[in-house]
Description:
This protein is an alpha+beta fold. The protein has one domain (3-219): Glutaredoxin, CATH 3.40.30.10. 34% of the residues lie in helices and 21% in strands. It is built from eight helices and ten strands. It has helices at 3-14, 35-40, 43-47, 99-112, 116-120, 136-145, 160-170, 207-219, and strands spanning 50-51, 68-71, 76-78, 86-92, 122-128, 153-157, 174-177, 180-183, 186-190, 196-201. The longest helix is centred in the middle third of the chain and has 14 residues, at 99-112. It starts with a helix and ends with a helix.
Amino acid sequence: MSRIGFFLGLVLLVGCNKSVAKSDGAPAPAPSASPAAMAQASPSESAVGVLPTLDVVRGVSIYALPSPFVDQDGASSKIDAFRGQITLVAMFFASCPQACPRLINNTKAIEAALTPKEREGLRVLLITIDPENDTPDVLRGVVKRFGLDAGRWKLLTGKDDDIRDAAAVLGVKYREMDGTLNHSSVITLLDREGRIDARYDGIADTRAAASARIRELLAKR
Length: 221
């Protein structure tokens, strides 16, 4: 199957099941799952911000994406740069006023809930949905502004089509509306081979659930 056919299938299957959170300066609502998925999720899962894992992407590795991206240092980087590591991945854009800062800070909070030794085994991948404006220089500014560990955090930009491919696999939906980008805020946990293990509400405090699952994955070899 061609790359176009593969990802067209993913977009058709995945694209309609995601929520959209506005990033227009108003508090961003938490993303919601489809009614069918919510019916399968337990109340306790929903309460702590654990999102249902979509059956259509279960077992699919984001590392199958072949296209090169560019990191915050301007270097070419494949999306599988952290293959072999447990990885958190989220999609954002640098000029987002509220939802993305919360998303990044919540990702940092998950990281901070781990011990120093556990953090050594975790990597974080942030992919911009605004490649036109989020140049490597801008991404380096994000690293500095949020005090990110550049040794373990990689921020990527790339071609618009390649970014949309990544969004389809991750179950993130975004579009431009009223002069800004609306997007779902999701933190995705990948196993060592880039397969989706869990998805978390990027706006909620999911430190307990996410850090516990990360510890379980770190213990597996």
